[in-house]
Design goal:
Layout (H helix, E strand, L loop, with lengths): L1 E3 L2 E4 L9 E3 L3 H10 L9 E5 L3 H13 L3 E5 L2 H11 L5 E4 L5
Parallel strand pairs: 4-5, 4-6
Antiparallel strand pairs: 1-2, 2-3
Helix pairs in contact: 1-2
Length: about 100
């Protein structure tokens, strides 16, 4: 994680670098929502699995600015239960992987 010009950037190393700019405040999220109001409503449903509540909330808010329907789970066990409950209505699973 690196901070430049009041923005937060994330990247993955060493095999591939993936950069994603994240908003730093609720005001920036609000501004992005205003800018994305012209987008057509997304029909996709994303199952967001993240054990850190702050990270999960931030990712949910970002995805909702693009009109995705978000289903949240705080653990793998909860994600499996949610997956079964939604019976094929989830288009994408978004989670992190911990390397040991």
């Amino acid at each position: 994680m690196d901070r430049r010009n009041q923005r937060t950037w994330l990247w993955q190393q060493p095999s591939r670098s993936t950069f994603q700019q994240l908003p730093r405040s609720p005001q920036q999220i609000s501004l992005r929502r205003q800018r994305t109001k012209t987008f057509k409503a997304a029909k996709e449903t994303i199952l967001l699995v993240e054990d850190e509540p702050v990270v999960r909330e931030l990712v949910r808010e970002i995805l909702q600015t693009y009109n995705y329907s978000i289903i949240e789970a705080g653990s793998g066990v909860e994600a499996l239960r949610v997956w079964d409950q939604h019976d094929g209505k989830i288009d994408l699973l978004l989670t992190d992987i911990h390397h040991a």
